[in-house]
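mind reviewing this stuff:

——
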Amino acid sequence: MFDRFSSYEKSIRIFALIYRFLDNCRIERAERALGMLTSEEFDRAEKLILKIVQKEAFTGIEDKRLKSLQPWQDESGLLRVKTRILLREHSKNFKFPIILPP
């Protein structure tokens, strides 16, 4: 599916535009989002792409390849791994990185 796009950034932009189109179809014309895409729209699209990649590569938290990593699923449905840096003052993405296939 992602073979059609020339870069990761382009994939995110296209998914964000699709999300915006779908959202705009559901609301009244006066309330539709116009102009440049927002960071929230990019984040939403990127999370969707990461979920798709994870579902294609892993069977879920119980996947035997992930057992040693102590994976868990965050509130947005992404598989993450616990690190040794839990007590440090860093962002969630740094303390709990998203699991991606090799």
